[in-house]
Amino acid sequence: MDLLGALGSDQPGPETPTCSRKGCPAEAWWQIMWNNPKIHSPQRRKIWLACSEHRDWLESFLRARLFWRSTEPMNHPKGSSTTTGPEVDR
User: Fold this and answer.
1) pLDDT in tens, 24-70
2) CB within 8 A of 49, min separation 6: which ones?
3) What's the burial of 17, exposed, middle or buried (CB within 10 Å: 0-12/13-18/19+)?
4) pTM of the prediction?
5) Are 50 and 74 in contact (CB under 8 A)?
6) What is the pLDDT of residue 44?
7) Is the Cβ–Cβ distance between 52 and 86 less than 8 Å?
């Protein structure tokens, strides 16, 4: 049985990934890697996407719970829909 197909995962996702912060429609520029050590193996990484505005908020939320592992910039194709990229000096 193909559970992913049954759940509609064969449907295409959005062309432009958006921020994981509730209600934020902004384009995501960061991948915030995390895991919950009580239920995930140390190697497991879950990913939240973040726009530059919500990156700190999402990281703080995860750090407070000791879930944050790393933050990496997303690879955007040439001609991305916006020009507001990640902050380079962080």
Assistant:
1) 999 999 999 999 999 999 999 999 999 999 999 999 999 999 999 99
2) 17, 18, 19, 20, 28, 30, 31, 32, 74
3) middle
4) 0.70
5) no
6) 95
7) yes
The answer to whether the CB of 58 falls within 8 A of the CB of 50 is: yes
Q: Which two tokens stand for residue 33?
A: 């890697």
What is the token pair recorded at 17?
């990934």
SS (H, E, C) the chain: CCHHHHCCCCCCCCCCCECCCCCCCCECCEEEEECCCCCCCCCCCEEEEECCCCHHHHHHHHHHCCCEEEEEECCCCCCCCCCCCCCCCC
Q: 71 has which bridge partners?
A: 32
Provide the token pair at 73: 């910039």
